[in-house]
Amino acid sequence: MGDLLTPITASAEFQFGWKLCAFFLLIFTVALIFWTWRDADRRGGMAWFWAVVVLLFNVPGWIIYMVVRPPEYLDDAHERELEIRAAESRLTKDGATCPSCLKPVEPEYLICPYCMKKLKKPCVNCGRALKMSWGVCPYCKTKQTAGEVADAMAPTRTTPREPGPANKA
Ligand SMILES: [Zn+2]
Ligand SMILES: [Zn+2]
Hints:
The chain has helices at about 1-10, 10-40, 45-55, 60-70, 75-95, 150-160, 165-169, and strands at about 120, 130. By secondary structure, the chain is mainly alpha-helical. β1 (about 120) and β2 form a beta hairpin. It has a two-stranded antiparallel sheet with strand order 1-2. α2 (about 10-40) runs antiparallel to α3 (about 45-55) and α3 (about 45-55) runs antiparallel to α4 (about 60-70). It folds into two domains: about 10-70, no CATH class; about 95-155, no CATH class. It contains seven helices and two strands; from the N terminus they run αααααββαα. Helices cover about 55% and strands about 5% of the residues. The site of one zinc ion has 8 residues, from loops.
């Protein structure tokens, strides 16, 4: 067998092919090490440790890295954290903050406990907290008049009055 292969292994073509393979293997290894180092660096892993692991074990080392590497890039994690924080602040803006003193309040508060600003009005029927601008209770469908008592009473007070004195005054 060895005698049969000797003319092949000794040939110039084989020597050249073997060197070419070794060259590509070297390039591949260097690229793999570089890729692993950069990937581990971006994910906040131990970049130099994994570069050495791939240098020593080549593809098996790279496979181990692929299995145990951090699941996401640091940039992605940072971005997601920012998004969560933005969503949280949006939530607080939507009604959990007093518009006057900006202190956190519960959505069911009728008045701000810090600055006494009137935040909501109670439903005349079921007593749930309603926005000041709502004309009807969305919970029990009762029309709200409490918020407009002043406006509603003004015309009723003038109606019984005779038109004469009203015009003179
Ligand atoms: Zn307040
Ligand atoms: Zn109601």
